[in-house]
Amino acid sequence: MKEEVLHKPVLAERLIDLLNLSRFAHSKLRGKLIDATFGLGGYERLMTELNLDILGIEIDPKTIKEAEKVVSGFCGSRLSFRLVQGNFRDIKDIAEKENFVEVDAIIFDLGVSSFQLDSPSYGISFRYPESLLDMRLEREISEIKASDLLNTLSESQLTSLFEVVLNENLSRRIARLVTETRKKKSFEKVKDLLELIDKLSLKKGKLHPATKVFLALRMAVNSELENLKSALPDSFSLLKKGGRLSVISFHSGEDKIVKDFFESLRDRGLGNLLTRKPIAPFEDEILANPRSRSARLRVIEKI
User: Fold this and answer.
1) pLDDT digits (tens, 9 = 90+) for 207-225
2) What pLDDT, on the 0 to 100 scale, is given for residue 6?
3) What's the pLDDT at 118?
4) Residue 92 has pLDDT above 50, yes or no
C-alpha cells in the first residue's frame, strides 16, 4: 500500500506510553489489546516490538480489506491479529466471541480515517463535489444516507442535527435554507450542499466553512455519539484490573461524553484518571499532520 494512503496515527507515542504497553517489550508475558477503531493499523505499526495479541474492530468493509493487506506486512513481528468487521457499539459481543476479555488496553480513535476522507466513494469530504452525499460507513446495514436527511427532515430536526456541532443561530439558518432549497431541487451530490453553504457567505478561518456542516451530517448518519455512549461502559467492563481505556476524540461533543463517563467511574471509585485534562498534540505534530489539530486524548485505569 502506498504510504500516502495510510492513516497517520494521532498522539501515538503518548498513547502507547499512557497505556503502559512498553512493559510487553521484553516480557515473556503477552498482553491483550483491543483496537476498537482499527482502520489501517496505524498505531500497531508502532508496536511491532511488543508481545501483544490484538483484536482489531473496523466498521467499514472497504477499510478492513485494506487492513488485512497491511497486517500481512507485520509478519515476523511479535504481534498477532484478529480482525473483525463490526461496529464498536457491539464491542462486548465481538470481544466475548473472540475470547478477548480481561484485556490490558483498549483504543478508540474516533472519527474517520484518512483512507475514508481521501476516497470520493464515501461522500464524506467536500473535496469531491461530484460524489454522492452518502456518508454511510455501514452500507450493508444502514439505509439512510446524508442526502436522505437533508431531503426529509423537518426544519426543527435539521436545526437539532446541526446544533451538535454549530451554534443555534447558524444551525437555524442552514436548516431554513435546506428546506427552502429542496423545494426546487433535491440534494443528491456533495456539490449540492456546497452550493448551499456558499449562499451563507460564512467567514473563512482555519477551517473550511463546510467542515462542520459535513461533520454534523456524518455523525448523524452513522449515529456516532450514540454508539460512543453505548460502547464506553461495555469497553470498561472488558478490562482487567489495571487495564487502561483510551479515547481520542476530535469534537467537543465526543470529548464531553468521554469526560463525563470517565469522571463518573472515578467518582464511584472504579477508575483512576490518568489524564485529568485532555492531551492535545504538540505544534510540530499539527504541522506534520493538520488533521490532528482537534485531537484530544483521555485515558483511565480500571481499579
Assistant:
1) 788 999 999 999 999 999 9
2) 52
3) 85
4) yes
Return the CATH architecture of domain 143-221.
Orthogonal Bundle (1.10)
Q: Retrieve residue 279's grid coordinates.
A: 492531551
CB 238 within 8 A of CB 91: yes
pLDDT at 260: 98
| C-alpha grid cell, residue 260 | 463525563
Nine cell digits for residue 124: 464524506
Tell me the pLDDT of the chain averaged across its residues: 93
Contacts of 61-64 spanning 24+ positions with Cβ under 8 A = 61/85, 61/139, 61/140, 62/119, 62/121, 63/39, 63/113, 63/115, 63/116, 64/38
β-strand 31-35 against 52-58: which pairing, if any? parallel
Strand-pair partners of 246: 107, 299
| Domain extent listing, the chain | 3-115+224-302, 143-221
Dihedral sign from CA coordinates of 121, 125, 129, 132: positive
pLDDT of 4 above 80: no
The two domains 3-115+224-302 and 143-221 share their CATH topology (first three levels equal): no
Looking at residue 111, its amino acid is G
Could you write out the DSSP letters of every residue in 34-89? EETT-TTTTTGGG-TTS-EEEEEEES-HHHHHHHHHHHHTTTTSSEEEEEEE--GG
Q: Which sign does the torsion angle of CA 112, 54, 24, 303 carry?
A: positive
Q: Is residue 263 packed enough to be buried (19+ CB in 10 Å), middle (13-18) or exposed (0-12)? A: middle
Q: Report d(CA 294, CA 177) in Å as an integer.
A: 28
Residue 153 identity (one-letter amino acid): L
- Determine the pLDDT at residue 201: 84
- Which 8-state DSSP code applies to residue 9? P
Domain 3-115+224-302 sits in which CATH superfamily? Answer: Vaccinia Virus protein VP39 (3.40.50.150)
The answer, yes or no, to whether residue 32 has pLDDT greater than 70, is yes
